[in-house]
Design goal:
Blueprint: H1 2-6, E1 8-18, H2 21-50, E2 53-58, E3 62-67, H3 70-87, E4 99-111, E5 114-116, H4 118-129, E6 135-138, H5 139-145, E7 152-159, E8 168-174, E9 197-200, E10 204-205, H6 213-228, E11 234-235, H7 238-241, H8 251-258, E12 262-271, E13 274-283, E14 289-298, H9 302-317, H10 328-331, H11 337-350, H12 355-371, H13 376-392, H14 398-415, H15 420-433, H16 437-450, H17 455-467, H18 471-484, H19 491-504, H20 508-521, H21 526-538, H22 542-555, H23 564-567, H24 573-586
Parallel strand pairs: 4-6, 9-11, 9-12, 10-12
Antiparallel strand pairs: 1-3, 1-4, 2-3, 4-5, 6-8, 7-8, 12-13, 13-14
């Protein structure tokens, strides 16, 4: 019986129900039964069979169907719902048979010929909120069908479903717009925040020198940072904006995908000692150009030029609001332009994330600190290099490298009392390298007070709160990170944080789902492999757990159950015990 309870599989579930069944039966029982039988025999059952579905059970007014493919389930539902109005066209309006359909992709429990579990329950609840003749699908299902079904979808946002503990994001199939090819399917956009919102796209490097890419990228990062200080403004994080680097983009599409009203794009041309910025602000909903300007000067004027562009953008976005003052001292991180140049080069290398690239970044951050010993952000990023080596098992002299990372982190937070990047990176490094969870979180909270739009601070703070035993708060932090930076190149790290939070709450199915998402983004990210191995094991899926553990041990052969706490600073004994139990079940030696 235990084996039977644990038999699970991922499936697409379609739940359908006839609208107003009791009323129809009362008005015309014989006619309703006859037409329903004809619809089943001539349309519904043949379509289910054609799309490789299996009818699990039927009721007088509905049915539950399992499919191996979400695409098959959605295409089947679309064919049925499009055909029904024509089949009922001769019937008076008040007696027409209509169906509501809900589709979900989820984990199901096999019970003989029946299927059970949240995957089924959510499909049934989605059917309940569908309009007559309509189809509602969950976000998990939508992710699988977008671009594969000749239909467009309308984002209805997160919905609270009866007896489902957490809101589920849902999409309505637009049955009135089904003649578009799948290549032309429009993806729904993120809902706009309540306050003005903006994304700054990577500026085009017009210098004719590929080596100057880092310079153009650094300018954009500084503008994002300056804009982020405006508390009334919602600013998309750098990593999501840079997903569009090197691409010809449609600003309307960017607005939909990032959930912003405004898009700033521009170019940088650097020649000798002179630099020129151009920028234009566009309303993503209409494509209208709201503002454009050009700024020129020498490299010594670079911080003034950035201030001018940022101030102009502020005035264009909200002319009725009092223009916020941009403090020159905060937007000018160092007096040394050479140091700043090395810092920008280091950031470009660090974002590549490989062992060699991060080593290059450390050299560049070190040169920046040599030229300007008070450059707090450079110290913070250098400290992050040592955290990165520890997390990936790259350290060769562990004691010496940890000591150096702690020294740099402490210097960053001491120097950078008003520098959000230095506080966030330094605080995070202290938590991991020195074991100072409380101090690390306090520094990150200070960073967020300085810059509430700094996605990296929300992300790093979320991870630390997981380890401090605050999974609910951690999930709020990580959700805010993913909203500020929905296309982030480090999305796998945020998903891994969600996996650990769910695991510590005892929701092993949800934890493994997040961990699997993270591994699809970054297959060799060791914390994600650990979360996957432990959560799958605790959920009883030993094959998946063993597969993740095997890869984890290849990447980090010295990892043991006994040194887990040294690897990730999990504070609560019950959290550590749960994680260790899952890791041991998955095959990690003591």
């Amino acid at each position: 019986m235990a084996a039977e309870r644990n038999e699970r599989r991922l499936a697409a579930i379609l739940a359908a129900d006839m609208v107003g069944y009791s009323r129809l039966m009362e008005a015309d029982e014989r006619g309703t039964i006859a037409r329903q039988k004809a619809h089943r025999n001539e349309l519904i059952d043949p379509q289910i069979s054609e799309h490789h579905g299996r009818i699990v059970k039927t009721t007088g007014d509905g049915l539950l169907v399992e499919f191996g493919s979400v695409v098959g389930a959605t295409e089947c539902a679309v064919v049925i719902q499009r055909a029904m109005p024509e089949r009922e066209a001769e019937v008076p309006e008040e007696r027409r048979i209509r169906y509501r359909v809900g589709i979900n992709l989820g984990d199901i429990v096999i019970d003989g010929d029946d299927i059970l579990g949240d995957g089924v329950n959510i499909a049934a609840r989605l059917e309940g909120i569908a309009e007559p003749g309509g189809i509602i699908i969950s976000e998990d299902a939508w992710r699988q069908v977008q671009g594969k079904v000749a239909a467009s979808f309308v984002d209805l946002g997160a919905q609270s479903l009866k007896n489902i503990s957490r809101p589920v994001r849902v999409y309505r199939v637009d049955l009135g717009n089904l003649h578009r090819t799948s290549a032309a399917v429009a993806e729904p956009g993120l809902a706009l925040p309540k306050k003005p919102s903006i994304a700054v796209l990577p500026f085009q490097n017009l210098s004719g020198d590929p080596e100057q890419e880092y310079f153009a990228d650094g300018i954009v990062e500084d503008i994002i940072t300056a804009l982020s200080r405006m508390r009334w403004l919602f600013v998309i994080a750098r990593n999501s904006s840079f997903a569009y680097k090197g691409r010809i983009v449609d600003v309307k599409q960017v607005g939909r995908e990032l959930g912003v009203r405004y898009v700033l794009e521009g170019s940088v041309r650097k020649a000798g000692n002179r630099v020129r910025f151009t920028g234009q602000l566009i309303d993503s909903s209409t494509g209208a150009h709201l503002w454009a300007d050009r700024f020129e000067g020498t490299l010594e004027d670079i911080f003034d030029l950035q201030d001018q562009m940022t101030t102009s953008v502020m005035g264009a976005i909200a002319p009725t609001l009092e223009q916020a003052e941009i403090e020159r001292s905060k937007s000018k991180p160092t007096e040394s332009l050479d140091a700043y140049d090395y810092f920008l080069r280091g950031m470009a290398s660090f974002y590549r994330g490989t062992k060699d690239a991060t080593s290059e970044a450390l050299g560049q951050f070190s040169k920046a600190m040599e030229l300007d010993p008070n450059f707090a952000a450079a110290s913070g990023m250098a400290a992050q290099y040592y955290f990165w080596r520890k997390a990936h098992g790259w350290m060769t002299d562990r004691a010496q490298e940890i000591a150096e990372g702690v020294r740099l982190a402490r210097r960053a937070v001491e120097l950078g009392k008003d520098d959000a990047i230095a506080l966030a990176r330094g605080g995070h490094s202290l938590a991991h390298l020195a074991g100072d969870l409380d101090g690390g979180i306090a520094y990150i909270d200070r960073a967020l007070a300085l810059n509430p739009n700094l996605a990296a601070a929300w992300h790093l703070g979320g991870f630390l709160r997981v380890f401090r035993g605050e999974p609910d708060m951690a999930m709020k932090y990580l959700a805010q990170t993913m909203r500020l930076s929905p296309l982030d190149v480090e999305i796998h790290r945020m998903q891994t944080g969600m996996a650990f939070a769910e695991m510590f709450k005892g929701r092993f199915d949800d934890a493994s789902t997040w961990a699997d998402k993270a591994m699809r983004e970054m297959p060799d990210y060791t914390p994600a492999l650990s979360a996957a191995a432990a959560s799958h094991a605790l959920a009883g899926r030993m094959e998946e757990a063993s597969r993740a553990m095997q890869r984890l041990r290849q990447l980090d052969p010295v990892l043991r159950v006994s040194n887990l706490k040294d690897w990730l600073p999990v504070r609560r004994p019950e959290d550590l015990a749960k994680w260790a139990q899952g890791m041991e079940m998955a095959g990690l030696p003591q």
